[in-house]
Amino acid sequence: INGLSRSVGNLMTAFGVGTGLYLAVDIAKNIYNTTKELQSLDLALKMVSGTTKEFAENQAFIRGTAEKWGIEIKGLTQQYTQFYTAAKGILSDASIKQVFESISKSGALMGLSVEKQNATFYAFEQMMSKGIVTAEELRKQLGNAMPGALRAAGMAYMDLHPQITNIQIAERELMKEMKRGAIDSATYVPLIVKNFEKLYGIEQVKKVD
Asked: Which one is predicted more confidently, 36 or 111?
């Protein structure tokens, strides 16, 4: 309370009584609304986490990811809840966290807008939900959000087919197999996000500055 009173006093001194009070009320209202939204998001995360321990681990992971890569925590909580739901049962909890952080890292270091970050997460959520990687998600959704999506997927294809050493051939073969529904997301999504880091040259970066 004392801290709030001092803050209000500082605002009143800086901007005058009327404006200072208006700003103080507006700030308090924003804090209240944000807190309510975070509580709702935490409730959704708790429902999909399964156990109290998983919920606590997921909360800690989201906070750590937000701090490490400088990402707004409210949106990150929502995206993680959706991705966690789509990937649970397909990837292990450890792999889900690893893949999600890698996506967050690439988006943050590439300076993607919030809209493009959301589109990136949505594309990967769709891949996990369908169980396969399709051209729709890879080239249109992910490709429009993150530069080099097809190249990263081609590099992932080369990881699994070391006999192919030409990236253009790898991309063509990948497209053929996507048409047949043969590119399973459990195998390819972790490799695609790993190769985004290689493509962007950010593998060794440990924290956003």
From this structure: 111
- How many residues would you count in the chain? 209
39 against 184, higher pLDDT:
184
Please compute, for residue 96, the number of CA atoms within 13 A of its CA located in the half-sphere on the CB side: 23
Mean pLDDT of 78-100: 94
Element (H, E) at 161: none
Residues 6+ apart with CB under 8 A from 67: none
- Please, are residues 55 and 49 in contact by the beta-carbon 8 Å criterion? yes
Question: Residue 9's CB: how many other CB atoms inside 10 A?
Answer: 12
- Cα separations (Å) of 132 from 17, 72, 138? 60, 29, 11
Query: In the Cβ-directed half-sphere of 107, how many Cα atoms lie within 13 Å?
Result: 28
- Is residue 114 over pLDDT 70? yes
Give me 96's structure tokens. 């889900």
The Cα–Cα gap between 167 and 136 comes to 20
Joined together, the tokens standing for residue 170 give 């790898």
